[in-house]
Design brief:
single chain, about 110 residues, Arc Repressor Mutant, subunit A, elongated
Length: about 110
């Protein structure tokens, strides 16, 4: 039974973010990915498994090789989450700017 993980788990780890960035530009086999890191292949395999479970990577078999391809549509969920706070902070900063403008006008 395959476990489905939250996409936020995928991006919580810097190694997984690096892996996502690598394969976003070019599909790579597992060995090519592992060669880029200074950790065991077993550790990289675990990161890959989590990314697969989150739906950010798909592994396709080509002959004897397993090729990792990015499936980044789920990152839109992260973007929507962050966007609500971007609007919140922009509103706060706009209000602060207006307050400071009024303060400077009353001082002059």
């Amino acid at each position: 039974m395959e476990t489905r993980r939250d996409v936020f788990q995928a991006i919580a780890d810097p190694t997984r973010r690096d892996i996502i960035n690598m394969i976003a530009h070019k599909s790579l086999n597992l060995n090519a990915i592992a060669d880029q890191f200074d950790v065991s292949r077993q550790a990289i395999s675990l990161h890959i498994r989590i990314l697969v479970e989150c739906g950010l990577i798909e592994i396709k078999k080509q002959g004897r090789e397993r090729i990792c391809e990015a499936r980044l549509q789920k990152l839109a969920e992260v973007q929507r989450f962050i966007q609500q706070y971007e609007v919140f902070w922009n509103n706060k900063l706009d209000a602060l700017g207006e307050f400071l403008d009024r303060k400077n006008t009353s001082i002059s």
